[in-house]
Amino acid sequence: MKKATLEESVVKTLKKKGLTLASAESITGGGLAESITSVAGSSEVFLGGFVTYSDSSKVKFLEIPKRLLSKHTAVSEEVAKEMAESVREQFKSDYAISTTGVAGPGKAYGQSAGTVWIAIASKKSTVTVALSLAGDRATIRRDTIQSALATFSRILIP
């Protein structure tokens, strides 16, 4: 029998527990949502998300305060946390995942390629994870998606 992928496990567990999920993505450019929605039946648990690649879209769609972006930059724990909390509130989901970082190949916001922040928000709390990934742009983006799913899976299935 084939071993379930992370996204299949996440969708199955969300269904079993009657919980919902939303996403706010920057570095992953919609790849996280695509990964989740590639699982049959994910529409029962995945409510939607935003791809907010630019700072202006973070302000417009996620209502991230401009002062927060100015003070900490988009590649920060503070912004990742705010992204997850905002999208969870907007979709009224039980959980939300956000991804932000530098895919490379060069630096951005004074951060090296592979600098990543993931945040997972629930009604009770928000967990943040800092990553320092290596590889080319595609590898960093793929590894960010897998890390976000793995982190969420550990929270969902303690």
Order of helices and strands: HEHEHHHEEEH
Q: How are strands sequenced across the largest beta sheet? A: 2-1-3-4-5
Beta content = 15-25%
Please provide the count of β strands: 5
Helical stretch tally: 6
Largest sheet: 5 strands, mixed
Mean pLDDT: 97
Which regions have little confidence, pLDDT < 50, spanning 5+ residues? none
CATH level-four homologous superfamily name? CinA-like
Helix content: 40-55%
Sheet/helix structural class? alpha/beta
Protein architecture, described:
- It contains 6 helices and 5 strands.
- With 158 residues, it is an alpha/beta fold.
- The protein has one domain: CinA-like (Maf protein, Alpha-Beta Complex).
- It has a 5-stranded mixed beta sheet, sandwiched between helices.
- The longest helix has 20 residues.
- The model has no long low-confidence stretch (mean pLDDT 97).
